[in-house]
């Protein structure tokens, strides 16, 4: 029987991506574009996971290679967007942006070129995780862990810096939930990945909405 839980993430991710897209159309902020892309990529990943059901299409190496980077890259991208809210520390976002690009290229290259060493794991359907290509897990953390640190740390710092910016706590909670989702298989609940990811996406979206109300334009240089 097919596992339909990925469709929950599909619905939530694409619905929220459309709402962030409307925000971006009005505000044209780079961090909004990054969040839009991240949510859309999470939605695509969930679509591929659903197709990985043996009763639907079933995993095959090309489909699996396409799926893997989409489980890691969006987390780092959301973290980058959070850091770009730090108007007092612009270099931090630039440095992390360079790191994100470099590690995203590495993650994509490993997914494309590394051998699928355990194809028998494909029978598990959407909950296969990295088990069919363990080497991918050795590099995926460069995106997921770094993104979670930026996500959680950035959210906490935002609220600590300005107590009125409570949306930072929503970012931190979203980052924690994404982290828990990533460890769900190790915690003995692999099917929970898609449910927790959907909840994390929604909580993060609430942070997106609240941040729009607080992000002020960068101060203009003082006139001589």
Describe, in plain words, how this protein is organized in 3D.
With 224 residues, this protein is mainly α. The model is unreliable at 216-220 (pLDDT under 50). It has helices at residues 5-27, 30-51, 61-70, 73-83, 90-113, 134-161, 167-182, 192-214. It has a single domain (4-213), classed as Rhopdopsin 7-helix transmembrane proteins, CATH 1.20.1070. The protein is globular.
- Report the strand count: 0
> What general outline do the C-alpha atoms trace?
globular
Overall tally of domains:
1
Strand content: under 5%
Question: What is the structural class?
Answer: mainly alpha
CATH structural fold name: Rhopdopsin 7-helix transmembrane proteins
Any guess at the CATH architecture? Up-down Bundle
The level 1 CATH classification is: Mainly Alpha
Order of helices and strands: HHHHHHHH
Average pLDDT confidence is 84
The residue ranges in which pLDDT falls below 50 over 5 or more consecutive positions are 216-220
Q: Radius of gyration, rounded?
A: 18 Å
Distance between the termini: 71 Å
Oligomer: single chain
> Major sheet: size, sense and barrel closure?
none
